[in-house]
Design goal:
Length: 568
């Protein structure tokens, strides 16, 4: 049994599928038989071409035609005669092994394309990286994991899962996943909750202890992974799984109910989404709107930047599909979120570097395209635009000025734009939380991003399992920042939401209700559980609880207080 961090509730029982990259280190050697080495290279090319075709076929069943088309681009790179001839020439002239020749040629091509001014050619570098990696694996006799080829129920075992990895998982076959690293607020964990699959992270040694096809029990509620369980353990956990499914079904009775406390106070429960595909989950789980639309997933789905038209259609689909407010966060790339189409600088600490709004200011072309698409889509619903990673008033003013410039241009072009677009910011940097009274005079709303706010307040990487004890959402310091933001907004007649994972935590609901939070935004699967809980609470009583919690010294004291007051 392995203990990790419970990241997404539920029970999974299935075979293990290891999503682990093999070591593709290349050793340069001198060869005698040139023709044999070239034959090996051609054999690797044929195998890679076959693999790409299989992956494309499988991907087309789970992904859109546009998403699956990336494999066509990879096939074109593979068949490029220039690259093939350079590799073969290097083998002939330098008498080196095929793997070394490929590695050198591919790196030359990648560097050349990455240095080009044209976006299209820069984006081709990512295709070359992917294809050359597949070719190298074939030459070295290694097998690359291909999640798109999964054709049976599995539990994914990995060191970590990138947001794009997680986005491509077929939730009908992937029953859950366990990773070596991560935390409850890592993006893989957040995506697992969106996909409604159980997950356990920070298992430390899971990839070395599990083999492909091992039977796995994964308890995402308790943070447990059992490898090759006994029949009795399987029977026990099958019952736990059935009980959890029954509990979820019972909650569905609250789908169309309002979230009203016992003393008549109403709050909004809305959902976090990553694409229009998530609308169904919001509606099924009784979400009253969208509190965070993570637009970066639009950019992760392709090796190329999404066009204005592609973005417009995605935003329009969400606004039309949701009968309620839709808060759209502008592009938030950086930190642990990378995309092939944008060459981010290599930084010592990327979480504190060029990311989110800072990147948008450096790449105004990308930012303006997104703003135009949002403005055009605004007439199809209740759009609210939110800028992430705002640290200073000047940053907000700069972002809003660009928005107004694009609005004026579109108006002059005769494009209809909603007159009721609210413009707000994420509060995720302590500097903004402390200065909330000044921000509140200029914004239409705040949405508190607790994942980063906690990380920055405690100077503790939320992805680091070794210091996970410092990820303390219920620490009085965080509660005081949240209270400061809410009080400042309410004084100016503005509303406050929370779109960090804290909003979906049962333990947090009494505190946030008492502090005066207006909108709770969370993974869609958490909505009904929070609705059931909040409907059992008194707003007046929770205000007393929150005031008492603010006077405590530690998170442990706050948690004890909440448990004693609410029986959680």
């Amino acid at each position: 049994m392995i203990k990790g961090i419970a990241a997404s509730s539920g029970i999974a029982i299935a075979k293990a599928y290891k999503l682990v990259m093999p070591d593709l280190t290349v050793t340069k050697t001198t060869i005698e038989d040139v023709e044999k080495e070239i034959a090996c290279y051609e054999e690797a090319m044929a195998k890679t071409a076959k693999d790409l075709e299989m992956i494309k076929e499988a991907a087309s069943k789970n992904l859109s035609a546009e998403e699956a088309a990336v494999f066509d681009a990879h096939a074109l790179v593979l068949s490029d005669p220039e690259m093939k001839s350079q590799v073969e020439d290097k083998i002939k002239n330098e008498k080196i092994n095929a793997a070394a020749a490929l590695d050198e040629v591919a790196n030359t091509f990648i560097a050349m394309f990455e240095s080009m001014d044209d976006d299209y050619f820069r984006e081709r570098a990512a295709d070359i990286k992917d294809v050359s990696r597949r070719l190298l694996a074939a030459l070295l006799g290694k097998q690359l994991p291909n999640p798109a080829l999964i054709d049976e129920e599995v539990v994914i075992i990995a060191d970590d899962l990138t947001p794009s990895d997680t986005a491509q998982l077929n939730k009908n076959l992937v029953r859950g996943f366990a990773t070596n690293i991560g935390g409850r607020t890592s993006h893989s964990a957040i995506m697992a909750r969106s996909l409604e699959i159980p997950a356990v992270v920070a298992c430390k040694t899971i990839t070395s202890e599990v083999n492909d096809n091992d039977m796995i029990i994964l308890d995402g509620s308790e943070g447990l992974v059992i490898i090759n369980p006994s029949d009795d353990e399987i029977t026990t956990y099958e019952k736990k799984r059935d009980d959890y499914v029954a509990y979820r079904e019972e909650l569905k009775k609250l789908k169309d109910e309002k979230t009203v406390t016992t003393d008549g106070h109403h709050v909004e429960l809305v959902a976090n989404i990553g694409s229009p595909k998530d609308i169904e989950g919001v509606l099924e789980n009784g979400g009253e709107g969208v509190g965070l639309y993570r637009t970066e997933f639009l950019y992760m789905e392709s090796a190329e930047l999404p066009t204005e038209e592609e973005q417009f259609n995605a935003y329009k689909a969400v606004l039309e599909g949701i009968n309620g407010p839709v808060v759209v966060r502008t592009l938030d790339i950086g930190g642990d979120k990378e995309i092939a189409a944008i060459d981010l600088p290599k930084e010592m600490n990327p979480f504190l570097g060029v990311r989110a709004i800072r990147l948008c200011f450096q790449r105004e072309d990308i930012f303006r395209t997104q703003l135009r698409a949002l403005l055009r889509a605004s007439v199809y619903g209740d759009l609210r635009i939110m800028f992430p990673m705002i640290a200073t008033l000047q940053e907000f003013r700069q972002a809003k000025a660009l928005l107004l410039e694009e609005k004026e241009k579109l108006t002059n072009e005769g494009v209809a734009i909603s007159p009721n677009i609210q413009v707000g910011i994420m509060i995720e940097i302590p500097a903004a939380a402390v200065l909330a009274d000044q921000f509140a005079k200029e914004v239409d709303f705040f949405s508190i991003g607790t994942n980063d706010l906690i990380q920055y307040t405690f100077a503790a990487d939320r992805m680091s399992s070794s210091i996970s004890y410092l990820y303390q959402p219920f620490n009085p310091s965080i509660l005081r920042l949240v209270k400061n933001v809410i009080d400042a907004a309410h004084k100016e007649g503005k509303w406050v939401g929370m779109c960090g994972e804290m909003a979906g935590e049962a333990m947090a609901a009494p505190l946030l209700l008492g502090l005066g939070l207006d909108e709770f935004s969370m993974s869609a699967t958490s909505v009904l559980g929070q609705r059931k809980l909040i409907r059992s609470l008194s707003k007046v009583e929770m205000e007393k609880l929150a005031n008492e919690a603010l006077q405590k010294g530690t998170m442990e004291e706050v948690v004890e207080l909440v448990k004693a007051t609410t029986e959680l």
